UniProtKB/TrEMBL annotation:
SUPFAM superfamilies: ABC transporter transmembrane region (SSF90123), P-loop containing nucleoside triphosphate hydrolases (SSF52540). One of its GO terms (cellular component) is mitochondrial inner membrane. Residues 1-25 are annotated as: Disordered. It is found in: Membrane. The chain crosses the membrane at residues 107-128, 199-221, 303-327, 339-360. It comes from the Eukaryota. Residues 412-650 form the ABC transporter domain. Pfam families: ABC_membrane, ABC_tran. It comes from Cylindrotheca closterium. It is a multi-pass membrane protein. Keywords: ATP-binding, Membrane, Nucleotide-binding, Transmembrane, Transmembrane helix, Transport. This is Uncharacterized protein. One of its GO terms (molecular function) is ATP hydrolysis activity.
Length: 687
């Protein structure tokens, strides 16, 4: 049976505020829902930047353009060829029906050959354009994803993952449609309409003038509708991104959702963004809140009005033009064949303008997506610091260089560090913190929640930049060190380790940047982390898939895999952020044994949770109110530091009460936190 002491320590661990998981209590949460939903700003739309990504496809684009001109050109001359057949029917110089039929057969054979050539050219052109679109968007997605991964942690504090995924998915899909369909259709149909209009003027300037007036009127009246559709499309994509954020969070946390019976609550949150149509009377959505249904509803109405107007007005002007054309034929200013060809051209113009209008609406949607995508593509991460612009005076006198020492000893020093999280600039987290951590020593950080313990861990990995002061490793300021080199020498084990849906072996090698890691090295790291035994029990051993976020592993197993991963990096500095706080006694014992092996020969910084861990540290740093209040060994602090004494007293009292009365009888008598306590038990005991 588990010892009562283990019970209360496990209880404290389970309920302790989670400093570590994404620094939730100190970094990543943003104070209001409204602020997080406004996460992604939109840059100015830029199709030019999109075409820059198509530079490698330029030869095929040019070839596609030639095919477009050729295929559409032969399609346009077909009505002129067929017009000769119409004129043959009423030509008085052709005396017999057989002669007429012979002439018509010759004309229509040529027309069919020309049509087939146009269809074949159009097929090849459309295929090339589709492949080009796929290549450009695949290139865009790869570059966008790589660029997102380069952003500093503060960026992810302010931008929800669901919205970033939406940029990678929905927005790039819109851009793919623009590249492979909308823009080519726009160009093809516009050129076809202009060429048809030119041929119409060739046949009859009077009749063409009437038709052109109608086209101009339709275009001018439809342009505002296109802008409205672009705005509604942007609103739709923005709200959809927010809905995807909610669904991603919930689906990724199903144990929490179902554990708190919050399925209905999550459905309501999602419905608030999507807009459940069954809750809306008479189909008409309210002005607020903004939902995808509301944006889609008005976008559908606008699109229907847009296309109905374009096609309706187009056919209306067609009838007016034909009416005038019949008059010109009667007056002898046109032949019947010419009017027939003119009729084909005006239908082509009307259809093409409708297609142009449709393409414009899609291009406007794509432009909104391009603004959101290229906001991310153009954003320069603040860590590492970007070089000055080439045109700036600073760039002429100063170049930003980083150093990469041959080795790392592991001496760490914080010098008068002041820090605020970028997402909460009005709340100080570290206030004039100075601390020396010798190489090959173990330092435990203790203190109340929010004192800045996990923040120090984050700053050492240079997830954020300090506001004032500096942090050095072996005497080198962090911002002078090559960032990848720095992080490759730091091992990091969190309270809730992050594993990926890969094999155990792939997860262990995740942070290893050296070549030719042997299976023996992997197994030795696993043995040191007390993970080898349970891995060997699985049928596929190290090739076992751990599931999304390591869902197939227990908490203790995930923690030991994470420790093995840190050991394989051969790190000189090991950061342990409450690595045993959420484990049961047996798992904690095994993980602690793994940690005891891992700390040998390394600089270790522990956000301490257990009294046993605190006692074993070479130095203990007591933090309170965003400052370091004392540093020393366990016995020294116990003799002189009242805050440390209070921490130990509370833990000892809790354990004694559990031992005497049992866990259940003890819980109602837990000391209450009146808000003025210098060190809260659950936080101080776990921090």
């Amino acid at each position: 049976m588990m010892d009562p002491k283990d019970d209360i320590e496990a209880l404290a661990a389970t309920n302790t505020t989670n400093d570590t998981n994404n620094n939730a209590d100190e970094a990543t949460t943003i104070s209001s829902e409204e602020k997080t939903e406004a996460a992604l700003k939109s840059d100015k739309p830029s199709l030019g930047k999109l075409f820059a990504l198509a530079q490698p496809e330029m030869p095929m684009l040019i070839f596609s353009g030639i095919l477009m001109v050729g295929s559409e050109g032969v399609n346009l001359i077909t009505p002129l060829i067929v017009a000769d057949a119409y004129d043959t029917l009423v030509d008085p110089t052709v005396l017999t029906d057989d002669a007429r039929m012979t002439k018509i057969n010759e004309v229509m054979t040529i027309a069919i050959i020309v049509t087939v050539a146009g269809i074949l050219g159009g097929f090849i052109r459309a295929t090339i354009q589709g492949v080009i679109g796929e290549r450009v968007v695949a290139r865009l997605r790869c570059q966008l994803y790589a660029h997102i991964l380069k952003q500093e942690i503060a960026f992810f504090d302010e931008h929800k993952s669901g919205e970033l995924v939406s940029r990678l998915g929905s927005d790039t899909t819109l851009l793919q449609t623009v590249i492979s369909q909308s823009l080519p259709d726009f160009l093809v149909q516009l050129i076809k309409a202009m060429a048809s209009m030119g041929l119409m003027f060739f046949l009859s300037a009077k009749l063409a003038g009437v038709a052109l007036a109608g086209v101009i009127v339709i275009f001018l009246l439809s342009a505002p509708m296109g802008k409205i559709m672009a705005r509604l499309s942007k609103e739709y994509q923005d709200v959809l991104g927010q809905a995807q954020t909610h669904s991603t969070e919930a689906i990724g946390s199903m144990r929490t959702v179902q554990g708190f019976a919050a399925e209905e609550k999550e459905s309501k949150r999602y419905n608030e963004k999507i807009g459940n149509p069954d809750d809306i009377p008479l189909w008409w959505p309210p002005r607020e809140p903004k939902t995808t249904y509301r944006a889609g509803f008005f976008k559908s109405i606008t699109a229907s009005a847009f296309f109905t107007f374009v096609f309706g007005a187009g056919f209306g002007f067609l009838n007016v033009t034909l009416w005038y054309g019949f008059y010109l034929v009667i007056q002898g200013e046109m032949t019947l064949g010419e009017l027939t060809a003119f009729n084909s051209f005006i239908i082509t113009v009307g259809f093409s303008m409708g297609q142009v209008a449709n393409a414009i609406s899609k291009v406007f949607e794509g432009m909104g997506a391009s603004g959101r995508v290229f906001y991310l593509m153009d954003r320069v991460p603040t860590i590492p610091k970007p070089p000055p612009p080439p045109s700036s005076a600073e760039s002429k006198t100063k170049t930003i260089e980083t150093i990469q020492p041959e080795s790392m000893q592991g001496n760490v020093e914080l010098q008068n560090v002041v820090f605020h999280y970028p997402s909460r600039p009005d709340q100080i987290v570290l206030n004039d913190v100075s601390l020396k951590i010798p190489a090959n020593s173990t330092t435990a950080l203790v203190g109340s929640s929010g004192a800045g313990k996990s923040t120090i861990v984050s700053l050492l990995q240079r997830f954020y930049e300090v506001d004032q002061g500096r942090i050095t490793v072996d005497g080198h300021s962090l911002d002078s060190l090559n960032l990848q080199w720095l992080r490759s020498h730091i091992g990091y084990v969190q309270q809730e380790p992050q594993l990926f849906g890969l094999t155990v072996k792939e997860n262990m090698l995740y942070g290893v940047h050296r070549e030719n890691v042997t299976q023996e090295e992997i197994e030795q790291a696993s043995k040191d982390a007390h993970a080898h035994e349970f891995i060997q029990d699985w049928p596929e051993g190290y090739d076992t898939l751990v599931g999304e976020r390591g869902v197939k592993l227990s908490g203790g197993q995930k923690q030991r895999v994470a420790i093995a991963r840190a050991l394989l990096t051969n790190c000189r500095i090991l950061l342990l952020d409450e690595a045993t706080s959420a484990l049961d006694a047996e798992s904690e014992h095994l993980v602690q044994q793994a940690i005891d092996k891992a700390v040998v020969g390394r600089t270790v910084i522990v956000v301490a949770h257990r009294l046993s861990t605190i006692r074993q540290a070479d130095q203990i740093v007591v933090m309170h109110n965003h400052k370091v209040v004392d540093v020393g060994k366990h016995d020294e602090l116990l003799a002189r530091c009242t805050r440390y004494q209070d921490l130990i007293r509370r833990q000892s009292t809790m354990i004694r009460d559990v031992s005497m009365n049992g866990l259940a009888s003890m819980l109602p008598d837990m000391p209450e936190d009146n808000g003025d306590s210098e060190v809260q038990f659950l936080d101080s005991a776990s921090a």
